[in-house]
Amino acid sequence: MPTILLIAHGSRDPASIAEMQAFGREAARRLPYPVHMAFLELTDPPAAVALRSLVASGERHVIVMPLLVGPAGHQKNDIPALIHWARAQWPHVRIEYGTPFDTHALVVRVLQARIAEAVAALPDYVEEETAILLAGRGSTDPDSNSNVYKLARLLWEGHTWLSVEVAFFSLTTPRVPDAVARAARLGARRLVLAPHFLFTGLTLQWVREQAEAAAQEWGVEFIAAEHMGLHPLLFDLLNVRLEEVLHGRTAMNCDACKYRFPFAGMEAAVGQPQTSDEEHGLRGIA
After folding, report:
1. Domains detected in the chain
2. What is each CA distance from 55 to 1, 38, 94, in whole angstroms?
3. Is the pTM of this model over 0.90?
4. MF terms per GO, please (predicted)?
């Protein structure tokens, strides 16, 4: 029987840490395998320490599942570097790797559900007067950023919202105030923030504050939907990703990977080795 190691990002925010740990407990309750939790940075236990502990306890088959919304440096570099290190340390242990939640249809359903919850009690809600702001953290990886745009389009399908805007907190554009301004110029009377965040935390708090301030500046009603959090469908998706590993169907996101194809301005990234450092994937190896 395999053991599941969930790897989350980690945080300085106690509420975020508590939510990540709660996700791990709920996953352990729902999945038919032992489940353990670890973190890339800022929070203990480090992923390397958790792997070492599992091997020391006699585990011979570990499936590493990333609790990440999409493909970027943590998924493509930090966790793979950890797995390469672990396989070299313990060649007798079978260590497999799943894929992040990505743009799966269940993620779209979770986002739709959070939006529906946010507007359910509004007395004068009209879709055609409402813009959705799908806001993510932002990345230097075009694969990751483009997935947010794909989710935005999938969210829009079947609805009559005025628009579904995309914004990022950092590292790329458009930023949150610019996306709110665009929605206002298009005629939105109401803006619903749909956070593309798995867990709460300081960054999500800042995104909400920026969106609300910009909406007030433009005279647009502002509603903040909940982040994805512990929505039940995410545990269904976690099980889907786990079944992919168990049946050899895991498909990594290589079609638009900057490490495989020369995107404009990123040509030097092609062929770079998977690396990490002792503040992320290799934290705790000493």
Report:
1. 3-102+231-269 (3.40.50.1400), 105-224 (3.40.50.1400)
2. 14, 14, 10
3. yes
4. lyase activity; metal ion binding
